[in-house]
Each structure stands twice: as structure tokens, then as C-alpha cells.
Amino acid sequence: MRLGVRVAETAWVESGGGASPEVGVSAEGGAMVDMGRDDELRGPSPEANRWAPVEAALNLVSKWLVAAAYVFAGLWKHDVEIMWVFLGAAVSYLLSLFLKRVLNHERPTDLRSDPGMPSSHAQSLCYAATFLVLSLYHYLGTNYLTMILGPAALSVAFYLSWLRVSQRLHTLNQVMVGAAVGSAFGALWFVLWRSLVQEAVASSPSVKIAAILVSAATCVSLIFANHG
What we know:
It is built from 8 helices and no strands.
């Protein structure tokens, strides 16, 4: 059968019919393959990569932005409540390390070797944002200002957390769990302060001193542990 097809093609070419239809189709297919390869070599369009450097930079500086916010809050308030917030941030970080060791969930890439569940980055951001939002509503009540600042703070925290996914440092589930744990812990830490610790600190100078010393010692210990 194939011999008959080849004979027919030869007769068609010798009679001046030009290239056979199959040859034309093959050439067209080859051209399409070449075009596909060219697209692969060109890579993503400039529009797709426009925000990639910005997101990478934001991801790198996000922890320093949070640290700067804590320093500003400490200089502004310089009271026991902000020390309680610092202590909560330290405890939340230790909790994330404990959960990572227990769950032992791999990261999406080999950029980091430690486990990725939950994302300590997302957990820390959402802890701070949740405590901030609850404090805003407590001190200022529900008004136009808090209705703007509250969702804005949470949106910034969620966006900076999502950058861990876009930079392939965490999976989406790892970031979502970190955000959920951080938000829940921030709410719990806020309730503990308002319902228990604040009254104890106000009624006993020794409790106030103990709270300040424990918070300071915990934060300093974590700083040296991370840089040791």
C-alpha cells in the first residue's frame, strides 16, 4: 500500500504537479513547531513580568517593614500593653516553629530546607494585623476611619503573605494555615489582655514588672537565637 502511495507521489511530481500534499502538510507542521519553539525562547511577555521584581523586593523587605512597625509602636506607646504585643509575637513565632516540626510539611521548592507548614511569615503578619485591627475598634469604635484602616491592614497582611506563594517559598495551603493560626492567636492574645492581664497589671506593680521583664527577655532571646 505504501509503495503504491510513493509511486503516485513520484508520478505527480514528475508530471509537474509540485510537492505532494503530504510534503506541504509536513512543512507547515514544521513551521508551526518552529513558531512554538520561538515562543518558548521568548518566554513570558513583558506585561507578565512587570511586577515580578517589585513582588520579589516586597517579599524581601516585608519582615523589616514589620520590625519597623513594632519599633514605631514601642516608641509611641512604651507601656505594658505594647510589651504584651511583643510577647505575643514571640510566642506566635515559637508556635509556628513547633507546628512546623510536628507537621513536617515540605516546601514547594528547595530554596529553603526547613518545613513549610504553617508559614511563619503569614502567621506573624496576620497576628500583628489582627491585634492591630481589634485594638483600633476597641479604642476608636466603629466609624469611617476604622472601617477603612481595619480592612486595609488585613489586606496588606494577606497580600504580603501571598507573596510567599508567588515566590515559591510556600504552598497556598501553608500560607492559608499560617494566616488562620496567626489571626486566631492574635484574637486570643487580644482577649487575654483585655479580660485578664490588663486588670492584673493595673492592680499589682509586681505583675507589671514581671510582664515587662518576661516580654523583653523573650524578644531578646529570639533575636539572638535567629542571628546566632
